[in-house]
Amino acid sequence: MKKLLSTVFLSAAFATMTACGTEEGSSSETGSSNEGQDKEVNIGYFPNLDHAAGIVGKEKGYFTDEMGDEVYFQNFPNGNDFIEALDTGIIDLGYVGPGPAINYYLSGGDVVVIGSAANGATLIVSREDSGIHSIEDFPGKSFCTPGNGCTHNVQLEIMLQEKGMKTNRLGGEVEHQSRVNPASMVAMFEQGQIDAAAAPEPWGTLLVEEHNANVVTEWNEVFLGEELASVVMVTTREFLDEYPDKVEEALRAHKRSVDFAQNNEEETLETVNDLIYDLTQTRLPEHVLEKAWQRMAVTTETHADALQAWADASYELEFMDKDPDLDGFVDTTILDGILEEE
């Protein structure tokens, strides 16, 4: 009964979270001003644990400290919605997973990575009675991910391919179900609808700690585990060229946020949980957040080679039509200058 109640509760909470759009107190307009000092800036982020840098910067006021009062925030349920908002000018910059940003860039979209916010945060887990305890156990089984070709999907599929397996998408023996909201994975595990998941944190750890899931592959052992960014900070080249001062201010706030998160785990987790509560009226168990925190690294380090390696893997798995060239996708010049001041 405890598991059933928590499943229903978390699924409802996540549905509420994904229905949320603009934060309270944020503007309904995307102001435009030719004066950088007066420019209204709109920042996007996800209410996820690995977006802690953005959440801390928002809640602690670092962005308004650095950029002034004309800064507004909007949360998103997935990368596709974030990229659409960036493309249409609803937001100017923000935090998103590398997969959607890379796919948008390769399709000719205007996006540039100006820094990293977190690495890791992918956990491969299986249902307690699924019979899956290692990657070799996947033949004839099923798994789910938040999106088709998303960061976590590519990480697991390339590992399957290295073991000689393919998914049903490529005519193989492993079934993949995509576009599964992370909290919905809980219900699917409990009802026996899926055998495994490549889950973002804290949802992977939640399945392990509260629903007896098996850890198949730890976060630092998945493909590109510790080096692949789970969250990057992006803007458009147009915004970067027109408002470099605002980008620099945002990156200074970002660095302050990362520094705080690295040195204040307890308060950071409380801040993230408080924001999730504001959006969903529920809190994640503290012990889950604490263990999930150990499966990621909040950092400003941006590994461009890992992003290219992920894109190459995505191409190899036929998620992309042509060989990916990420030249020009990453520009951390401003952030590097800020870090050199230390």
What does this protein structure show overall?
The protein is of the alpha/beta class. 44% of the residues lie in helices and 15% in strands. It has a six-stranded mixed β-sheet, with helices on both faces. It has a five-stranded mixed β-sheet with strand order 7-6-8-5-9, with helices on both faces. Strand 6, helix 6 and strand 7 form a beta-alpha-beta unit. The longest helix is centred in the last third of the chain and has 20 residues.
Q: Report strand %.
A: 15-25%
Q: What is the mean predicted local confidence, pLDDT?
A: 88
Task: Please describe the biggest sheet, giving its number of strands, its sense, and whether it closes into a barrel.
Answer: 6 strands, mixed
How many distinct helices?
14
Whole-number radius of gyration? 19 Å
Large-scale geometry? globular
Distance between the termini: 53 Å
Along the chain, the helix and strand elements come as: HEHHEHEHEEEHEHEHEEHHHHEHH
Strand element count? 11
Keyword list:
14 helices; disordered N terminus; 342 residues; alpha/beta; six-stranded mixed β-sheet
